[in-house]
Write a structure and sequence with these properties.
Layout: H1 6-27, H2 34-47, E1 51-55, H3 58-68, E2 76-79, H4 86-93, E3 97-100, E4 123-127, H5 138-147, E5 153-155, E6 163-164, E7 167-168, E8 175-179, E9 193-197, H6 200-210, E10 214-216, E11 219-220, H7 231-240, H8 244-262, E12 275-276, E13 282-285, H9 289-298, H10 315-318, H11 328-336, E14 337-340, H12 348-362
Parallel strand pairs: 2-3, 2-4, 5-8
Antiparallel strand pairs: 1-9, 6-7, 6-12, 8-9, 10-11, 13-14
Helix pairs in contact: 1-7, 2-7, 3-4, 3-6, 8-12, 9-12
Pyridoxal-5'-phosphate binds near residues 87 and 155.
């Protein structure tokens, strides 16, 4: 059994993907080929937002947005300690300081109630993560942000395709970034990402930053990055996109099957009624996780831990003076979370095996 079965997906979608790759090879426009713009238009439409700008990764998309907002040394960005390192890393890369605010105990997303107390005159933005495929509480977050005149950047690297009150992730704030890393809900076959923004001027800025700050050939107006999305990756994503809605439904079906088997016996993911999750991860919480993981491994069941250490306890942040930061909910969650195999091609029989083994392991 695979934790995320990329091979099963490729076998199911082989024909359109092979064709898309062949077309790129035949045209040999590997950088800025027409598929990049086609994908940007298709995904802007999918999300329902004005502008999409392709990037070489989710990390670069997040970074470019912070650069475009001219966030830098002396600035603070409020974010969650319960995420992949890239979220806080991009804040540090522009020279600003992440301010970690604890998460809600049910969703493990940024707790909007705690944001206001963390705002200072140096705060420049709020950067929530839509963790495990479920959107953060954007009504509450946007309301706090609006009261203080702060922009909100959704780290939607795990939530592309998710919805909040019927509106898609990446279209809920002034800016968002997603990732097409192969294991994400909409994955390519290498690294890739995209920024989504409402403002046309910001979109133009992002295109300049993406290409070394270039405004016309060999004229550079600002310091940028080499952040382009490959034509090949855009073509693969265009081939996969028509199947994405069906894959989201398959993920939700798989989540329902896990819930039927595990609810009441293991702490299953809490999805709020306003949310439609894409289940980038199906993450349960257990006591004595190490033992449970070992038992599952010996039953041939792969698992993962997202994440074993909250960001404020990572060596890099401890070295930067974050010892005094206290985020008890994130710290506790880091000891309990256990992600089970989850992907659109998981069979009922496989899920039955996972559930049986898990229930035995926690008994
Ligand atoms: C995957 C991920 C990223 C980074 O995306 P890349 O495309 O790998 O750079 C950022 N934030 C979160 C929450 C992620 O899960």
């Amino acid at each position: 059994m695979e934790f995320i079965d990329l091979q099963a997906q490729y076998q199911a979608l082989r024909q359109p993907i092979d064709l898309a790759i062949r077309e790129v090879l035949d045209a040999s426009r590997y950088i800025n080929g027409p598929q990049v713009k086609q994908l940007e238009e298709a995904l802007a439409g999918f999300v329902g937002v004005e502008h999409a700008v392709g990037f070489s990764s989710g990390t670069d998309a997040l970074l470019a947005i912070l650069m475009a907002w001219e966030i830098g040394p002396g600035d603070e960005v409020i974010t969650t300690p319960f995420s992949f390192i890239a979220t806080a890393e991009t804040i540090c890369l522009v020279g600003a300081r992440p301010v970690f605010v604890d998460v809600s105990p049910d969703t493990l997303n940024l707790d909007p109630e705690l944001i206001e107390a963390a705002i200072t005159p140096r705060t420049r933005a709020i950067m929530p993560v839509s963790l495990f495929g479920q959107c953060a509480d954007f009504d509450a977050i946007n309301a706090v942000a609006a009261r203080h005149g702060l922009p909100v950047l959704e780290d939607a690297c795990q939530s592309f395709g998710a919805a909040y009150q019927g509106r898609r992730s990446c279209g809920l704030t002034e800016a968002a970034a997603t990732s097409f890393f192969p294991a994400k809900p909409l994955g390519c076959y290498g690294d890739g990402g995209m920024a989504f923004v409402r403002d046309g001027e910001l979109a133009r800025q992002l295109r300049v930053i993406r290409e070394h700050g270039q405004v016309e050939q060999y004229r550079h107006a600002v310091i940028g990055i080499n952040g382009r999305l490959d034509t090949l990756q855009a073509a693969i994503l265009l081939a996969k996109l028509p199947h994405f809605e069906a894959e989201i439904r398959a993920r939700q079906m798989a989540a329902r099957r896990y819930a039927e088997r595990l609810e009441g016996r293991v702490r299953i993911p809490a999805i709020r009624p306003e949310n439609l999750s894409v289940f980038a991860q199906y993450t349960v919480r257990v006591a004595e996780r190490a033992t449970v993981r070992e038992k599952l491994a010996s039953a041939g069941i792969p698992t993962a831990v997202h994440y074993p250490t909250p960001l404020h306890r990572q060596p890099v942040f401890m070295a930067m003076g974050y010892e005094g930061v206290d985020c008890p909910v994130a710290t506790q969650a880091a000891q309990e979370v256990l992600s089970l195999p989850m992907h659109p091609y998981l069979t009922e029989e496989q899920q039955e095996r996972v559930a049986q083994a898990l229930l035995q392991a926690v008994a």
